[in-house]
Write a structure and sequence with these properties.
Layout: H1 3-11, E1 13-17, E2 34-38, H2 67-82, E3 96-104, E4 108-115, E5 121-128, H3 129-134, H4 138-148, E6 161-164, E7 168-174, H5 181-188, H6 193-212, E8 215-216, E9 225-227, E10 233-235, E11 242-243, H7 260-263, H8 271-286, H9 298-307, H10 318-327, H11 344-347, H12 357-361
Antiparallel strand pairs: 1-2, 3-4, 4-5, 5-7, 6-7, 8-11, 9-10
Helix pairs in contact: 6-8, 8-10
The structure holds adenosine-5'-triphosphate and magnesium ion.
Family: Belongs to the protein kinase superfamily.
Keywords: ATP-binding, Kinase, Nucleotide-binding, Serine/threonine-protein kinase, Transferase
InterPro entries: AGC-kinase_C, Kinase-like_dom_sf, Prot_kinase_dom, Protein_kinase_ATP_BS, Ser/Thr_kinase_AS, STKc_PKA
C-alpha cells in the first residue's frame, strides 16, 4: 500500500498516551507510545476474589500433570463462563465508597473503591457509554466485559461483578496494589535479567493460556501489567482482547508494540502477541523499546518495525539476545511462539532454563521485588491524578446499545 494511503488509514485512529509522557530515563529517551483504537465503522476490532488482587491459593496446580491437561481443564471452565454471559450482576455504585483514581484511559477511568459492607478494596473501571458509542467501541467493550468475566488464571485480572447506570458501564476487578510495571521499570531504568525472567515467564504463561482459550490480547505493554502485593504479575485491560477463530484485521494496539503484520494491514492472529512479548522482553531488559525513534511521526516508527532492524545495548546476555531475535521475526514461519511447538519454543528456550513453571503458577517462587504496601487499600504505588466527579445523566442513555450489559 502506498505510504500516503497508509497514513490516511492511521489518521483515523485515536491515540492515548503511555502513562508517563516524559520517562525519567537516560539515553535514549523513550518516546511516549499510545494505544490505538480503530475508529473505522467497519472495525472489527471462583473462587472468591481476595483483597489486593491476590487470590487465595485455593487451586494448586499439580507438578505432575501434563501442562496441556491443565490448559484443557482451564478451557472447560473458560468456555462455561464465556457461553453463559451474565448481565450486570452487582447492585450499583451505592454499595461502594469511591476513593481515588488509579489510572485513566481513552474511554474512562479506573478508581480504587471499597465495598461498604465488607470493607474489601477493588478497582473499578468506569466507561462512558457516550464515548464508547461515539468512538464505535461497543463491540470491543462487549468483548472486554465478557472475557474479563470468563478468564481465570494466576497472572490475569478478572471481574468480580459489573453494573451500569444512566451514563456509565462499571467493571469491578480485584485491586492490584503494587502499581504498574511501567512505573517500576521507569524507576529502576531497566530490570536485571533475573527480574525480567521472573516477569517474562508469567507473561508467557498468560499468553499461552489466552491463546489456548482462542483469545488474542493485542495490547501487551508495561502499563497493562500490574504487580501484586507478592511481587507477581497481573495483566489488566482486556479492551482489545478478542476470541478469534482464524484471523482478524483491526488496526489496534500500541505503536511501539505493533507487529509488522498489523501495520501492513495483513490479516493476523495470535502471532502478534508473541511479537509484543519480544518487545516487552527487550523493554524490560533495556529500559526502552527496540524500534524506538525520536520522531513523533508514527510512520517513521512503523517503517522501522517493518524493516525489522534493531540493536541491543551493551550488557544484554547472549541467551536473551537469541530469544528476542527469534521472536522479533517479521517472517511468521520463523517467529518463536508461532511455530508448531507453540509457546514451548519460548518456555524451553535456554534463557528460561531452570524456571519452575508450576511453582510460579502456585506462587511458590520468591519474587525479586516486593512492593512496599502499608495495607490492602494502599494506592501509593499509583500516580496521583486530578479527581473528577462522575456526571450521571438524569435520563438513561443508549438503552438499546447497552441492553445486554
Ligand atoms: N485491577 C486493577 N488494579 C489496579 N489498577 C488497575 C487495575 N486495572 C487497571 N488499573 C489501572 O488503570 C489503568 C487504566 O486501566 P486500563 O488499561 O484497563 O484502561 P484503558 O482505558 O483500557 O487504558 P488505555 O486505553 O490507556 O490502554 C491501568 O494502566 C492501571 O494503572
Ligand atoms: Mg491500558
Amino acid at each position: 500500500m502506498p505510504r500516503w494511503e497508509r497514513w490516511e488509514q492511521f489518521k483515523r485512529q485515536i491515540f492515548t498516551r503511555r502513562r508517563y509522557p516524559k520517562p525519567t530515563m537516560s539515553e535514549p529517551v523513550v518516546k511516549s507510545a499510545a494505544t490505538i483504537k480503530n475508529l473505522t465503522p467497519s472495525a472489527v476490532k471462583t473462587s472468591p476474589l481476595a483483597v489486593s488482587g491476590v487470590r487465595p491459593a485455593v487451586k494448586k496446580f499439580s507438578h505432575n500433570s501434563e501442562y496441556k491437561q491443565i490448559l484443557n481443564r482451564l478451557k472447560v471452565d473458560f468456555e462455561k463462563k464465556y457461553n453463559n454471559v451474565k448481565a450486570s450482576s452487582g447492585n450499583g455504585l451505592q454499595d461502594y465508597d469511591v476513593l481515588k483514581t488509579l489510572g485513566t484511559g481513552a474511554f474512562g477511568v479506573v478508581k480504587l473503591i471499597r465495598r461498604k459492607n465488607t470493607e474489601e478494596y477493588f478497582a473499578l473501571k468506569i466507561l462512558s457509554k457516550e464515548k464508547i458509542v461515539r468512538h464505535k467501541q461497543l463491540q470491543h467493550t462487549a468483548n472486554e466485559k465478557r472475557i474479563l468475566q470468563s478468564v481465570e488464571f494466576p497472572f490475569l485480572v478478572n471481574m468480580e461483578c459489573c453494573f451500569k447506570d444512566n451514563s456509565y458501564i462499571y467493571l469491578v476487578m480485584p485491586f492490584v496494589c503494587g502499581g504498574e510495571m511501567f512505573a517500576l521499570l521507569r524507576k529502576s531504568k531497566r530490570f536485571g535479567e533475573e527480574q525480567a525472567k521472573f516477569y517474562g515467564a508469567q507473561v508467557a504463561l498468560a499468553i499461552e493460556y489466552l491463546h489456548h482459550m482462542n483469545l488474542i490480547y493485542r495490547d501487551l505493554k508495561p502499563e497493562n501489567i500490574l504487580i501484586d502485593m507478592k511481587g507477581y504479575v497481573k495483566i489488566t485491560d482486556f479492551g482489545f482482547c478478542k476470541l478469534i477463530r482464524d484471523r482478524t484485521w483491526t488496526l489496534c494496539g500500541t505503536p511501539e508494540y505493533l507487529a509488522p503484520e498489523i501495520i501492513q494491514s495483513r490479516g493476523y492472529g495470535k502471532s502478534v502477541d508473541w511479537w509484543s512479548f519480544g518487545i516487552l522482553l527487550y523493554e524490560m531488559a533495556a529500559g526502552y523499546t527496540p524500534f524506538y525513534t525520536n520522531s513523533s511521526d508514527h510512520m517513521v516508527l512503523f517503517e522501522k518495525i517493518c524493516k525489522g532492524k534493531f540493536r541491543f545495548p551493551a550488557g544484554f546476555g547472549g541467551d536473551l539476545k537469541h530469544l528476542i531475535q527469534n521472536i522479533l521475526h517479521a517472517d511468521l514461519t520463523r517467529r518463536f511462539g508461532n511455530l508448531k511447538n507453540g509457546a514451548n519454543d519460548i518456555k524451553q528456550h535456554i534463557w528460561f532454563r531452570g524456571t519452575n513453571w508450576i511453582g510460579l503458577m502456585n506462587m511458590e517462587v520468591s519474587a525479586p521485588f516486593i512492593p512496599k504496601i502499608s495495607g490492602p487499600g494502599d494506592a501509593s504505588q499509583f500516580d496521583i491524578y486530578d479527581e473528577q466527579d462522575l456526571k450521571i445523566a438524569s435520563k438513561c442513555m443508549f438503552i438499546k446499545e447497552f441492553a445486554d450489559f
